[in-house]
Amino acid sequence: MTNDKYQMTNKSRNFKSIKRFGLGILFGFWVLGFGFLPQAGALSRVFPAPAFNGPTGLVRVPSADIIPYKNFNIAADYGSVMAAGGTTSTEAIINYKMNLGAFHGLELGVIGGTDRSTNKLREGVFVNMKLSLSTGDEPDPLLLALGVENLFSYTQTDVYMVATKYLKAGPQLTFGFMADFPNYKFRPLGVLGVNTALGDNLFLVADMMVGETLFQVNGGARFYFTPIFSLNISGLNLLDGGQAKDQRTALVGFSWANPF
Fold first, then answer.
1. What's the whole-number mean pLDDT along residues 135-143?
2. What is the domain extent for residue 237?
3. Which of 22, 130, 148, 178 is the most exposed place for a label (fewest CB within 10 A)?
4. What number is the average pLDDT over the span 102-129?
5. Short-list 213, 219, 216, 221, CA closest to 246
């Protein structure tokens, strides 16, 4: 009994330590954004890229950005699950996605790729939808959106509501609420993310998801060759927490808006 209590206490301490370290990473990205004030306006000059699950966003967390009406983008990622010790495993990750500004304030998308349970490309795609609840014409607007990821999936569907603020002469901040349904049970999560411009072409992104027993930090970089085409490098579950939505994964991919 004493050993069980000790193990539970130890796990709780480790979980809190991971949380503090993850918050430190995001705070570092936040401060870094204010260190590059001349490049702050670069965020508004590039086309939003999709997050890992498809909707426009950061690394894993969607933002409140909506693809403009009659515009679209395509994107793909390829990577590997990282085994213990930082070595790559044989488990490859592939996903491909497309988003469309179907109506004013409505973004529709699809995502396909590797099935998590079989490690093979699944047949068909899941659907993503995002609806803008507010828009702003001012230079630094506060945007609000709600949406659903992986609609029609039995195990990977998420719902979310997020707000995105373009800070004056600083980084872009996204925060809000997400929920998924593991084992058909409702699980609420808080989400927070930062998008920081280090120049006219280079952007650092980081986000995290926090729940009662779940904590996951993700990070990456985007290099825009043009305002509509970017090379994306990202990592999921950087701290390799056991209580996370994703395994620790390294990915490289691209995003291309209105290619034809």
1. 75
2. 2-257
3. 148
4. 88
5. 216
Quote the tokens at residue 26. Answer: 């995001």
φ, ψ dihedrals at 63, nearest 5° = -105, 180
**CATH number of the domain where residue 98 is located:** 2.40.160.40
Q: Which of 186, 235, 236, 228 is nearest to 211 (CA)?
A: 186
End-to-end CA distance of the chain: 65
Which tens digits make up the pLDDT trace of 31-63?
Answer: 554 555 545 566 778 999 999 999 999 999 999
User: 259: how many CB neighbours lie within 10 A of its CB?
Assistant: 9
pTM comes to: 0.82
Q: pLDDT band at 14, cuts 50/70/90?
A: low
Total of domains in the chain: 1
Between 242 and 84, whose confidence is greater? 242
DSSP string covering 108-133, please? EEEEEEB-TTTSSBPSS-EEEEEEEE
